[in-house]
Amino acid sequence: MTLHDLKCFMVLGETLSFTKASALLYISQPALSSHIQLLENELGLKLVERSNRRSVSLTEAGKIYHKTLMDCKKHYQNSLAKISENLAGHPVCIALLHGMKLPNDDMTRIVEYTHANRSFNMRIDFVDRSGIEQTIENGNIMILPKDLIPKNKVFYHKKITAEPVPYYVIASKSHYAFSEKEEDQMKTLGGSAVFLSDHLSSNSAKQLVEAASELLGQAPAEIFTDQNPNTVSQFLHGNRCYTIATGWQQELSDPGFFSLPLYVSVDFYLVYRPETIINPKYVEYLQYVFQV
Q1: Contact 195, 242 (CB under 8 A)
Q2: Are 195 and 226 a contacting pair, CB within 8 Å?
Q3: Cα-based distances in Å from 153 to 126, 132, 133, 149, 274
Q4: Which of 46, 47, 95, 269 could tie 62 with a disulfide, CB 3.0–4.6 Å?
Q5: What is the 3 state secondary structure string of 77-102?
Q6: How many CB atoms lie within 10 A of CB 209?
Q7: What is the reported pLDDT for 229?
Q8: pLDDT of res. 52
Q9: Rounded to 5°, angle at Cα 183 from 179 and 187
Q10: Do domains 92-162+269-290 and 165-265 have the same CATH topology?
């Protein structure tokens, strides 16, 4: 007995016609008859009364067996629906690097989606660069600049930026450079220290410092890096240094900070392992929010 034997009998029991059943199953009528015969032989029961090839009826045993199979099918489908409903309640987590923020359009679409799908559960977390791989392995979806996508792991990644996001020189408007004459301000800013987050790869950091030095007209006196972006923000408030970050940096929306775009830009990607994400609606969610 195979599942296909059972399926053949269930369809035949619904249509009571070899012609219709074989058409629905995409098999020949002799093949269908063979499946029914194999099932009857194994059960030791006559399930079908064959008055002719086109019209059949079920025996009493056949009716009982067919109802039992249909009840099993219904129970199976209900179980799948319940499982899907439970899984849909599992939160979909979008993880960002500390100090990042999503563009306003993306946040608006997140609100729209969650409002239209009240049972959908999502959250946004923040992680350090050292936690990128483990965050993805744990079933979370990371948003990363291209150069930080792990190279030693096979992760699915999909670009979500229609246009590359520029990097910016960012400094507090209280930086001592802005007390200088206007024509000297950029050079003085460039000659102060630059404090970078380690979210930048070494190659990117070097390229960005060179671009900032060219734009400001002066190389930085010192270059510092730190794993904690909050430390970078604190140093900016010290008014003695500047930083370089993408257009998705939180400080860019703070009116207390000065920013100047560089010619260097970067694309952002969704990075995740599909097989580790439990919520079945995550694809629909990502498509709606990030337009991919």
Answers
A1: yes
A2: yes
A3: 21, 11, 8, 9, 14
A4: 47
A5: HHHHHHHHHHHHCCCEEEEEECCECC
A6: 17
A7: 66
A8: 64
A9: 80
A10: yes
Encode burial over 11-50: b for 16+ CB neighbours within 10 A, e otherwise: bbbebebbeebbebbeeeeeebbebbeebbeeeeeebbee
Say what the pLDDT of residue 144 is. Answer: 94
Domain covering 165-265 in this structure, CATH number: 3.40.190.10
DSSP H or E run through 111? helix 104-116
Average pLDDT, whole number, for the chain?
A: 88
How is domain 92-162+269-290 classified at the architecture level of CATH?
Answer: 3-Layer(aba) Sandwich (3.40)
The domain defined by 3-87 folds into Arc Repressor Mutant, subunit A (1.10.10)
Amino acid at 90: H
- The structure's pTM equals 0.67
- At which residue do the structure tokens 């995550």 appear? 282
Closest CA to 147 of 212, 229, 207: 207
| Ordered mean pLDDT values, 10 residues apiece, the chain (292 residues) | 90 90 91 91 90 78 92 82 63 88 90 87 88 92 92 89 93 94 95 88 90 96 80 83 90 88 94 87 90 82
C-alpha separations of 229 from 98, 100, 176, 216, 286 in Å:
6, 9, 22, 23, 27
Structure letter (DSSP) for residue 227 = S
Task: List Cα–Cα distances, 174 to 170, 233, 248, in angstroms.
Answer: 12, 13, 22
208 three-class SS:
helix
Phi first, then psi: give them for residue 240, nearest 5 degrees.
-125, 0
Q: How far apart are CA 100 and CA 107, in angstroms?
A: 13
